[in-house]
Amino acid sequence: MKPAVAIICGGGPAPGINTVISTVAKIFLKDGYRVLGIQEGYKGLFSDEPDVKEFDFDHADRIFSRGGSTLIMSRFKPKDEDFNTRIFSRENIKLLVTIGGDDTASTANRVTKFLASKDIIISNIHVPKTIDNDLPLPDRNPTFGFHSAKDEGVRIGNTIYEDARTSRNWFIVSTMGRSAGHLAFGIATGCHFPMMIIPEMFNKTRPTLSKITNLIISSVVKRKLLGIEYGVALVSEGVFHILDNEELRKSGVEFTYDAHGHPELGNVSKSHIFNLLLQKELKRLGIRLKSRPVELGYELRCCRPIGFDLTLCTLLGIGVKKLYDEGKSGCIVSANSRGDITPLYLSEFENKDGKIPPRLVDIDSEIAKLCFQNMHYILEEDYEQASAYLPEPEAYDFNKLLDWI
Hints:
- The mean pLDDT is 94.
- The chain has helices at 17-30, 41-45, 57-63, 86-91, 102-117, 146-167, 182-190, 209-225, 238-241, 245-250, 270-285, 307-325, 346-349, 366-373, 383-386, 398-401; strands spanning 4-9, 34-38, 52-54, 93-100, 123-128, 170-175, 195-197, 231-236, 291-296, 331-335, 341-344.
- It has 405 residues and is an alpha/beta fold.
- Helix 1 (17-30) runs antiparallel to helix 3, helix 1 runs parallel beside helix 12 (307-325) and helix 6 (146-167) packs across helix 7 (182-190).
């Protein structure tokens, strides 16, 4: 039997997955390998009857520019007792290509060690993906899918902003980003939103629902002083992850939690929560304002990849073959700004506790400082005018709320 390459996808979708799959399939088919796509990630890989898609050039060629994933994804993380050798020995698999996050990569290393203990030697190479852009790749290179998701978010965000201007509404928008605010930052700055709130902004003060609400009101009132009766405030879902349990209880939402203790934010509308909190505070202040919530989340994950990600994902797919031919295994494929392919290892990302810290938005960078200056919010020089709307304008001072003084 010809040697085979197996491909699985873990976690959630990101634009460019099909580009990686297509490229890997084409380049290995060209060298005489069979290419097997395993449905449902590790769950499918170790099931009694795995659902396997054997690729030919025609199928690989049809999917390379499509959004979503031709292979069904799964967040299933197998325990050691779930491992077995069936599909590896039956299909003569020589390489396992995994597409996903760090959990997917670390599991692949466990799998290859297990197989080696059973005298089955395979290589594994991982292709990292996340629209959150929070994997600390060298030179701050972006993770694939981020720019496409941001582009789609900007497209939708500009439509929302136009609606706000046309109807003199305010919209409270929330977008994905568990630990880092890269996606929210990119969308808000690309759309000229007058207010964005990302977790990194609370680098000097404890985040609270009251501070988040007051930041939005700060922008609302500043725009009123400028004669602008509309706007959009974007809040990254990541702010929920840095709120303590008492603050979560104050929101009035009964959260469910995943196996890692994170609130399952996909089950609730974050924009709805923030909009309700805003309306409640505006009513107390006597400010009449129509606002509406908009959730930006799953709309971004399966959009068609833009040119940047088509090129990057093609390069990463070719890079898988390059590293395999060089005898590399247990590594992550990476492309730098010059297009050079290099292997990275999880140990290079891990801190002293063995965890991978997320790459955050650099609040102190020049781009961040300049973009924050382009937003609208109350400062000390606005107190006198703002007192027409706010009994204590200093409580809505942008810099004081964040302790950036």
